[in-house]
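Comment on the following before class.
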Amino acid sequence: MAKESTKLNSEYLYNRDDFQITPKMKQSFDKYGYILVRGLLDNEEVEKVKKVFENATSEQILEDNKMRVSDGQGREAKLIVWSHPGNDVSGMVSRSQKVAGTCEKLMGEEVYHYHGKLVSKEAFTGGSHLWHQDYGYWYKNGCLLPNMMTVFIALDKCTKGNGCLQILESSHTCGRLDHELMHGQQAIPDIKRVEQIKERCPLVWCEMNPGDALFFHSNMMHTSGQNSSPNRRWALLTAFNTKSNNPTKQHHHPCYTPLTKVPDAAIKECENYTLDLSQMGFVHPSQSQTSRPSLTKEQEEATTRS
């Protein structure tokens, strides 16, 4: 029988004065496919990031570029995707040593910003994400190796009730599984295979507080449930690719672009709360090549005209 738990085997506490990736943490990432760092962003940093996405100017930008992804059960998750980190507070987070620098140490080489995302599951209506691997998407973009990863930073409290992440520990060692389009999401179609993997790779619920960060390998299998609670669930995600894994073709995410990293202190020093349309390169729903999210009527008309 498959095991389920809320206890993570690869969990660490962020210490602002002495945080570094130790050999033990690297070994843990290689074994389990992730590390969870509690308190990577403190309360002030979280509030600064939320201020970027909650102001009136940003709300319009987000609305214009929102992808609504159906879960096949009458609900939707919402995504906003961009190509490059801007000079606002959220960009400082993605470019910081404790985010990008940590990824370089975990991957063992230079990384670049593959794309960023704001993922939202609104109260009572937020949809689920089906079982998948990020590399299941990215493989189709000409990335030949799974030497890629994602950093999931909770901006709101993530619980079982509002659709927190669920992961299969060590499932990244199973390699890439085939993915097909299901309800507008690239997902693993062979659920029997997933159930078999659960027998050996425990399912863990990643309940997180605002500021907690999950660094995970691109082949780790994960899913998340619907949000049936009265509490919103927002998360900032940054995907990184390694320089040596530069895609073999042009697609809707960037090829290798050198990343200018910043000190961690830049997050609190930054007072720019305006998303930069020219710098970030938002990905319109009609441009996505790896999924077909639900479009608004206006977006469908724009796609038809183009």
About this structure: Residues 43-54 form the longest helix (12 residues). Confidence is low (pLDDT under 50) at residues 292-306.
